[in-house]
């Protein structure tokens, strides 16, 4: 089986054909949230500049199609994950239900639901509900004996105890949506991927649930954040992404 590669294809197809069964130590998946299609935008927003709701063809399904898709991709991940492996799934309140249901049906144990508090959350456009400022990452395992590098997580935790001592990493992570130098942009200044995840998030997940040399797989690789951080921390990596343009961004990033 090849590692240190990003496949340009559908993840269900690649997981079923190119990845060995029970070969993967850690899966991080940031699937479509099925949020596109309402065309929300706010031009001239004074605090953060023009803002557009994600609106991508890969992110538009009917509710039954989305549940079927969730079953298919998590099922395909289940086949390739080692018994002692971990799967992390990024989600929001919109799609946490489908992932949780499928994981439970497959017999997974939920270790944590990490709350990502987005310190620079998107504006409240309708002003009819509380401003959304969180996403979640589900951490699920198949079997006991999963990897968890508790001490490493304490060492990298930016929060310290009152006396300056190291502090346990909690399941509540405060970090901004990717901006500044970390955001990959084209020559026109526009973000090249609409949902690039923070490197700090992948750093915590990869350092927590894998060790040097382990294989980390991301079935919805996007701009290649998982592969980039896995490589940085000396893990083997496999990405799968169906959009050619995003493969180009990842290749440049990895180089
Ligand atoms: C939410 S984004 C992932 C972003 C990524 N975490 C990052 O940091 O850039 C989901 C990605 O999955 C890709 N995608 C959607 N459906 C797919 C499928 N069936 N197989 C492979 N990739 C898919 C989309 O093109 C998109 O880039």
User: Count the strands?
Assistant: 10
Q: Gyration radius, to the nearest Å?
A: 18 Å
Main sheet makeup:
8 strands, mixed
Question: Biggest sheet: strands side by side, in what order?
Answer: 1-10-9-2-5-7-6-8
Helix content bin: 25-40%
Number of helices: 7
Write up what this structure looks like.
This protein is α/β, with parallel strands linked by helices. It has a single domain, classed as 3-Layer(aba) Sandwich (Rossmann fold). Helix content is 28%, strand content 22%. β9, α6 and β10 form a beta-alpha-beta unit. The longest helix has 18 residues. The two termini are 22 Å apart.
Topology:
Blueprint lengths: L4 E3 L3 H7 L6 E6 L11 E2 L8 E2 L10 H18 E11 L4 H10 L3 E10 L15 E8 L8 H7 L15 E4 L23 H11 L5 E4 L6 H8 L3 E5 L3 H11 L1
Parallel strand pairs: 1-10, 2-5, 2-9, 6-8, 9-10
Antiparallel strand pairs: 3-4, 5-7, 6-7
Helix pairs in contact: 1-2, 2-3, 5-6
Bound molecules: S-adenosylmethionine.
Task: Describe this protein with a few key phrases.
alpha/beta; Rossmann fold; eight-stranded mixed beta sheet; 255 residues; two-stranded antiparallel sheet; binds S-adenosylmethionine
Task: Write a concise synopsis of the structure shown.
The chain is built from seven helices and ten strands. It has helices spanning 11-17, 63-80, 96-105, 150-156, 199-209, 225-232, 244-254; strands spanning 5-7, 24-29, 41-42, 51-52, 81-91, 109-118, 134-141, 172-175, 215-218, 236-240.
């Amino acid at each position: 089986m090849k590692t240190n590669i990003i496949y340009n294809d559908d993840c269900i197809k690649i997981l079923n054909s190119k990845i060995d069964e029970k070969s993967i130590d850690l899966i991080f998946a940031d699937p479509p949230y099925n949020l596109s299609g309402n065309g929300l935008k706010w031009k001239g927003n004074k605090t953060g500049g023009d803002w557009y709701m994600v609106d991508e063809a890969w992110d538009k399904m009917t509710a039954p199609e989305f549940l079927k898709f969730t079953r298919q991709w998590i099922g395909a991940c289940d086949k390739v994950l080692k018994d002692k492996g971990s799967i992390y799934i990024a989600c929001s309140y919109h799609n946490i239900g489908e992932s949780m249901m499928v994981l439970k049906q497959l017999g997974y144990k939920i270790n944590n639901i990490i709350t990502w508090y987005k310190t620079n959350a998107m504006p409240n456009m309708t002003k009819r509900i509380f401003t959304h400022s969180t996403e979640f990452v589900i951490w699920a395992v198949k079997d006991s004996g999963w990897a968890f590098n508790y001490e490493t997580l304490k060492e990298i935790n930016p929060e310290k105890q009152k006396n300056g001592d190291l502090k346990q990493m909690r399941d509540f992570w405060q970090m901004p949506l990717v901006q500044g130098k970390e955001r990959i942009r084209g020559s026109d200044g526009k973000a090249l991927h609409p949902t690039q995840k923070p490197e700090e998030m992948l750093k915590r997940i990869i350092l927590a649930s894998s060790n040097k040399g382990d294989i980390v797989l991301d079935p919805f690789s996007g701009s290649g954040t998982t592969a980039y951080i896995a490589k940085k921390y000396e893990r083997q990596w496999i990405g799968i992404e169906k959009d050619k343009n995003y493969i180009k961004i990842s290749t440049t990033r990895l180089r």
